[in-house]
Design brief:
This protein is about 45% helix and about 10% strand. It is of the alpha/beta class.
Amino acid sequence: MNESFVLPQSTVFPNGLEFLTDLSTDYFPMIDGLRPMQSLLEDVSLSLDAPSEMMGENLDRAVHAMMARFTLGVSPGSVMEAYADWFAHLAIAPGKQWQLLEHWTQKNIQLFNYGLRSALWSQGETCAGPVGNDRRFAHGGWQTWPFNLIHQSFLLKEQWWSEATTGVRGVSKHHEKMVEFGTRQLLDTFSPSNNFFTNPEVIQATITEGGTNLLRGWMNWWDDWQRAVTGKRPAGCEDYQVGKNIAVTPGKVVFRNKLIELIQYSPSTPQTNKVPLLVVPAWIMKYYILDLSESNSFFNYLVQQGFTVFTISWKNPTSEDRDLSMDDYRVLGIEAALDAIEAITGESEIHTAGYCLGGTLLSIAAATQARQDKQSNSGSDTLTDSSNQHKRRIKSVCLLAAQTDFAEAGELMLFVDQSQITFLEDMMWHQGVLDNEQMAGAFQMLRSNDLIWSRMIREYMLGERSGVNDLMAWNSDSTRMPYKMHSEYLRKLFLENQLSQGHYLVDEKPISITDIRAPIFAVGTEKDHVAPWQSVYKIHILSDTDVTFVLTSGGHNAGIVSEPGHPRRRFRQSTRTAEDSYIDPNSWFDQTPVQQGSWWPQYVAWLTEIEKENIDPIEVGNASKGYPVLGDAPGTYVFQQ
């Protein structure tokens, strides 16, 4: 026997349960993947002197955390509950069963007739077509025998399973969506397009190139695997370097605390708008989504239009930051930045803009500030006036693909229920953070055909490498989420929807979006899977101030990064005053005309209409007020991995 082999000690817990608490790393020689188990058991052993209830809870947390490593953070309990709900109701629905049997028979007859027509007349009218933007079977080879039969059979099965998993009376809507989504993911895995032997495009390329495509695909896979295990970014991202050819708008870091760096961009015009602008990015990714290349940098564009622009660069949290809360992000982030901007510029009124999660936090901060203004000015009716003439610290609010009502928060709601959030909390409890790879996995599952399977076919079977642009490079530069903050975010906002219902507490008192009197400029994007524009549009219902709403083409990221001159960009825009009647989103979409081009100039015009006065450019930083220049933009936090 290997002398280094060490048997684990056994500990008897107070309730009589034996468990291994001293696992030596030598007990699992050459199996590094099992070493996290030791860490998990150490977490459990810390509670041995605690009451049995606490020890049992920690054991459950440890087991869930270990399971999460194999389920990508998806709760098995949540999935089983959804499928049990569906199956139990389907089992007592003979009418639905008969309908499914009838449709199964019809689809097989359709397939048989299609195969017969194809054999006799070479081609025939297809009996099933792809749904939406599904491009898996667009190659001409899929129209030749036998691949035409193979892909038609698969599409008919997809249709049948979609019918089987939806429309079952008694199944909750959440469970129905989960079952439909999970079944679709399973079917996508076995799509004939993913199999070398049933994909005519791959077979044709292999014959034409003599198999060199497979050799290139093997090299691509090997390169990706090496990058994954060594922590390197995807191939091509090295062409984009922060501070060299992205995130290069000139500026300085003028404030730093344990959570943020505040960047002030250098003015580039002879005169600047009197009111400075603070931009609050989301901390789920790096801030420079709004400062990519010089040609598509939102910050650079605003500076060139004569605005004094500040932005927050968030720290990438580690396990030591596990107890940072949503309130910490508000106080140490937005509130600290507003204090710094007021001290540096001498201006008491500040324009604000928030992107994605940063916009949600900004709405919380703005509602909190409005409540404080009302309390400090009790007895004055100026703050209840919806006009823009009276002074307020937050002069305007811009919400970029940001939600304030999470009742219809898109496909991410598939991962939001009591079981799922508890499972994620237990995973984060062990890690202290939600890891970037775990977050990326959830987003990839939402668009598995585009982000997983099509990439596998293109890069590993066809041997083709897609080019990387600045937005794709930014997307690979992900961050982590601290345990407490992310738990509060999921529970209070997604699960309980407290913000829209007036139940969200700040300093133990509820806040309300209706208290915000600053005008709002809200932007939604047509193809947003993260913050659907209909959900963003609900700011009309929640607010009692003037709202300008813009719906732009593109998705959650590309729709916002929509610089002037970008081809095929369009938008819709309208303004609703506080006195106007509500218009539902579908009616609004139908009656609002389309305008070609970027929405950026519209935002500049909106800001300028609020404050027309220009002044001489403000110096960067203000050492006399305690805000000296600490270094060049993009700062140091953006480089944290």
